[in-house]
Amino acid sequence: MTVLPPSPWQTIPARVRAITPEVPDVTTYDLELPGADYAFRPGQFNMLYLAGVGEVAISISSDPATPQQLRHTIRAVGNVTRALTRLTAGDTLGLRGPFGTAWPVEAVRGHDIVIVAGGLGLAPLRPAIYHLIRHRPDYGRIAVLYGARTPADLLYAHEYDWWQAADIDVQLTVDVGTPTWRGAIGFVTTLLAQQPLEPARTVVFTCGPEVMMRFVATGAVNRGVAAERIFVSLERNMNCAVALCGHCQFGPSFVCQDGPVFAYANVRRLLLVENL
Amino acid sequence: MTPAPPPGPPWWMKKPALQTLIDRLRADGYEVLGPRMADGAITLAPLTNLAHLPRGVRDDQQPGRYRLTMADDGGYFDHVVGPHSLKPLVFPPRTTVLEVLRVRDGWEYRTPEPPQPKRAILGVRACDLHALAIQDRVFLGGAYRDPEYAARRAGLFLIAVNCSRSAPTCFCASMNTGPAVRGGADLILTELTDGFLGVAGSDRAAPYLAAVGERPASPEEQAEAAAIPQRAAAQQTRRIDPTTVHDTLMNNLEHRRWADVAKRCLSCANCTMVCPTCFCSTVNDVSDLVGTHTRRQRVWESCFNEEHSHTAGGPVHPTTKSRYRQWLTHKLATWIDQFGTSGCVGCGRCITWCPVGIDITEEVAAMEGGRV
Predict the structure, then answer these.
(1) ipTM, interface predicted TM-score of the complex
(2) A–B: how many Cβ contacts below 8 A?
(3) Who among B138, B285, B298 is closest to A54 (CB)?
(4) What is the side-by-side strand order in the sheet with A261-263?
(5) Which of B283, B317, B318 sits opposite A240 (nearest CB)?
(6) Which of A42, A65, A99 is the last residue of a domain?
(7) Distance of alpha carbon B30 from its chain centroid, rounded?
(8) Is residue B351 within 8 Å of residue B360, measured between CB atoms?
(9) Is B105 part of any domain?
(10) Do B75 and B179 fall within a single domain?
């Protein structure tokens, strides 16, 4: 009799502890995994499952040091994410994970870190920010450059003061201002262009729309940051999350397995090809 | 029981001895599948009798064309490959990967026990054995492995046949995957004029070879058998150079040929369905009416469907051009980066079963001129 490998589709139950509205259409779900031995690294994702509806890949947005308090920040845009909005605290859903590569927070100790995020792209970067704060003396200068559509769309706004207090330079920009908005208006790439940086000791983590990450990465390269020290988080269709279904195939990679976090040097050429 | 011959040396058997082989396998609990005519094609289907084999049937294969012709005499394996490969036997087109049951305070998630059928496949060709070896790497070679594939794969007993002719669409010789069988099977047969030459490919073959082998093959019979796949190889006119195709495609991602082929391609996904290595799938929820029981069903998917690349921001491959490029570059180039082997075995099915007769060897050749 053949010994069979464990099923990669086996799902475990997760209980919803709290549901927190963040910005319009975006909600954070706090989950707990009863009895599960679970750990993740910043930048990884889970597959969240609702019976009869389906599964969706969602990056983890909480502190990797406290995996028991697992958080996912989700925009309601598709079947599964809209169905998630009908959950209330105490309900359960299914979970598989964690999957994928992480922001290399350990490997870049001693460097200056520039985090560049657009919109919901801040969610997969928040675990990295928490890690940097927790190990603040291990790193040089840290900046978070964040852009959203409007001031009301700025995610995790209640945490910025705390990040600042941990000696992180938080810079904000919006596409469209309001009468009370006193910050910058324009693309997040402009914030990067204005950011003083020492290229030789700088590492960039960026997540947001692919076109934004492309401009962030080229902007950083033009400032002298090596493409090997720029990291992007790519979005592709993830169905199995275990490199068996083919949906997220991207050049020589499966984004679910070899990503979502890639060194820009490894994907630069392919990112420039339209619809690849 | 006669003593088992050692694996390796070729044995000669009479043609009716194939019936003995089928009977022995069935007696040992194997369901025997082999080439059978159905719906105007040679398909892979269960058989119990030698008479089920398509004796004397030849397949005329051209880009976008498949026709069978029949002769009164001829061999049992005069045909080449039909639309079926081993793929559906190990990677079923539809299967359940998870059962979800409503329980008192939530849901219970159960992995179904995969079926472990014992199946003997008669008449497997060299290209399809290579395709199976490629699928082994996809489904069993990574960090996560597919238990159903593992279960079904372990139950296979493979009886290969050396091709006696090539279809015009075949290009296995250029891909180094055929037409001669060089391994990967339990038993390897070559059809001679008045008998079969049989060689054991694994230890499991010994009792069967002992049951059907009449005598050791003579040097003349061995020479006749060796010449048969060589003749088939010499018939092949199509080719792809496996040593250069990776760079040819990856250096030409913006070649105007992609737009040209997109004008002909229907994005119908036929090529990916008949391809013996294409492995894309999607898991869908299938629920009962009251919502207490959901099956997570995995079905074959194709990179030619728009939903294949769906993301919150829209499809990554919104055009036929981008989808054809996705398929061909993955099959012939980035597959090598991912799995250390090409995703193509030169079986030619995608050429034959393309409704508009797109020929991948021709598309590659069009890009070999360099960047345009």
Answers:
(1) 0.94
(2) 146
(3) B285
(4) A184-185, A169-174, A142-148, A112-118, A202-207, A230-233, A261-263
(5) B283
(6) A99
(7) 20
(8) yes
(9) no
(10) yes
